[in-house]
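yo

u said u wanted the structure for the complex thing, so here. seqs first:
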Amino acid sequence: MNEAPNQPEPPVAAQESSPEVASTALATEAVEAVPAVTVTSLTADLPFVAYVVPEDEPRAQRLYRLRHSTAHIMAEAVVELFPTAQVATGPAIEHGFYYDFDLPRPLTPEDLGAIEQRMKKIMKRNWRFQTLELPPAEARQVFVDAGQVYKVEVLDTIVEKFSPETVTLFRQNKFVDLCAGPHVNGTKTCRQFKLLRVSGAYWRGDSDRPMLQRIYGTAWETAEDLESYLHFLEEAKKRNHKRIGTDLDLFHFHKHAPGAVFWSPRGYTIYQEFLSYWRDSHKERGYQEIYNPILYKKDLYEQSGHYHHYKSDMFILNADDTEYCLKPMNCPDTFLFYTSKRRSFRELPLRVSEGGILHRNELTGALNGLFRVRQFTQDDAHIFVTEAQVQAEIAELLDIAREIYAMFGLQYRFLLSTRPEKFMGEPALWDEAEGALAAALNANVGEGNYTLNEGDGAFYGPKIDIELTDCLGRRWQCGTIQLDFQQPINFDMKYIDTDNTAKRPIVIHRAIFGSFERFFGILLEHTAGALPTWLSPVQAVVVPISDKVNDYAWQVHGWLKQAGVRVEVDDRNQKMNRKIREAELRKVPYMLVVGEREAESATANLRTYKDGERGEVAVDMIAGEISLAISQRTFDVEIQPLRSFEDPDSVIESDAIGY
Ligand SMILES: [Zn+2]
Ligand SMILES: [Zn+2]
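structre next:
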């Protein structure tokens, strides 16, 4: 609930016609003389009325008002500091707000501090938000007179599009804005805020229009919320996977191949470990791996429908007087594998996996480290089943998903998406498929333990999406399990049933990691780069305390290597503490410090990244411990989850796409 202003708003006329007098009359502290915001003197005679917030609103709505109101207050502060500022637009966004300005010079970090101080003053006075409806022409005149060209343009667009009888103005203290609201009652409600950064933004997102300066901020209801959100931002910054990737020498990017990862030896070691885990766990569960081409004539994608629906996301090349496409997903070519020979019911469920190299033509501006790339690999598989096999197969997939996510200490939830308004196929078949998915979820996850997204299915079939939550409370959609009735028709897939007649199988598209690249990025941020031993590029480092024991250090190296450990010796002529510090920075899970005493007893002074100093331990014990952690793929990492700032009802972007 928004608090009521703690001091009555001053009479509008007195406040506006003579701002200095009003300030003197009301201020309990010295108020600096500031240039009047032109707009207010122009609206002094207009009959603004106090804005009143409805009671008992849900938190999300309250936060929305608060954040948007903070944007207005920031605009007022900016105009005070830069009297010639042109004010553009300033919405509330997730966790905060921004406002775009056209300013005489680029803002510095000091400017942000000064703007914050101004905002605090405005908040302290608890100015009432006031509102007024005006015919568009009158409102337009206000902004024309104030020389606010962006506001005039926005107003003209509104008039052109909607021809409204009136438009709404909002005012607090000396700042007037063209705005539909909603706002809070008084400016004091917004005091738990912080300005975060400035970036460039083209007016209306159009690179032919002026580049404006966008100031971002965050705002919350309580000091505690603000503080934990700022802590979250700090942690997220520390854990930025691009930074970790550079610090730990795992991968890099180059402008000559936008959106494609250059894996360094260390990073590629981790990548290979992922792949072998994926292979092992799926082989165990009856999957067969295939490896298909990556370049196809467009005919394949015409048959699958991608060429028409997805062409703008595909890379297309010309050869042999025709178009070729780099494959954006494994589905269509896997279907060619299925139809390459006659299939019998005995083969079903047929589980076919392919970790093919995929390309999608993402806009260069949208590329983001490992999170959004143009070239990647998915832990993709397609399962060809009979109708009767759907439920059991889905149960099996839910089980795989749980096994995989638990391995990385990630929280997860399942979402069932059902038939959308536009769909293909028979409604009865849809009902049956949705029933099978729900039954599998009820039996394996528990009724009420998953979220129902009615009408959110793909047009070719219902699906289960799996959402992860990392230790910063951020949600990621990685896994997806989709039923598809459409592609079996497009590719005329068949199997010969028990009664010797040809029947149509159903395809299940599924990915659990999503793309390995993106999952790797998530894992790096989730663990802050301190990976579990089995994934670490260097699992142990041996540190001799002097060169007298270098031979012993290499002996220990040999023992560990024999036990299957990726081990290094740091026999550089450096101080021991420095070597230890460096190994820690590299997040090596096991560190074995050896001196003459250890050499005599075949021991080492053990330090682990997770637990610190562990004392003198026999090397064969250490080797045993490490090789167990490797073979069991133990998640031997300390994770301290932060509070989540995600709205559980908001939709997050999916990485995997089926069909
Ligand atoms: Zn507003
Ligand atoms: Zn697929």
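Confidence is low (pLDDT under 50) at residues 1-36. The domain at 12-221 is CATH 3.30.980.10 (Threonyl-tRNA Synthetase; Chain A, domain 2).
cya
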